[in-house]
Amino acid sequence: MKKTAGVYTNDRSRPRQDLVISGPVEKFATIRPQHISLRGYAGDAIKSKVTIIPEKKYAFRILNARAINGDNINIKLDEVKKSGGQAYELNVENLKNETGRYYDTIILTTDSQIRPELSVRVYGYLRARKSE
């Protein structure tokens, strides 16, 4: 990974300096999709699913799943078997009945000392049906 940041100084000869930060980044887990989008009509059943696959090098178990807010969603975590081994399915269901938008984050508590928590963002957008 390589990132650049511009730093502004009071040095007249070099008012701006670019700093480059780079280094290797190893994947801890595959999370597909990376966030949840619950879009649809208010009153309809809207659900989505995320699959979490631990990397073999950093094998971990998910101990708990909780939403930070939790007012608009219901969550269920299941352990499943995939071709590569152990995986998890996070099922998320919309509970909101009114039109509008909402945002929440699901925190997955792991038994790993490297990454004790993973997070999955949830975006909700409910609209009204058009009158015919």
With strands numbered from the N-terminus, the spatial order across the biggest sheet is 3-5-8-7
Poorly predicted ranges? none
Compute the gyration radius: what is it? 20 Å
Helix and strand string, N-terminal first? EEEEEEEEEE
Instruction: Report the biggest beta sheet as strand number plus sense, adding barrel if it closes.
Output: 4 strands, antiparallel
Q: Which architecture name does CATH use? A: Sandwich
Mean pLDDT: 94
Distance N to C terminus: 52 Å
User: What is the total number of structural domains?
Assistant: 1
- Decide which structural class fits the backbone: mainly beta
Looking at the structure, what is the overall shape? flat
Number of helices: 0
Estimated helix fraction:
under 10%
Number of strands: 10
Strand content: over 45%
CATH class: Mainly Beta
CATH topology, by name, is Immunoglobulin-like
CATH superfamily: Immunoglobulins
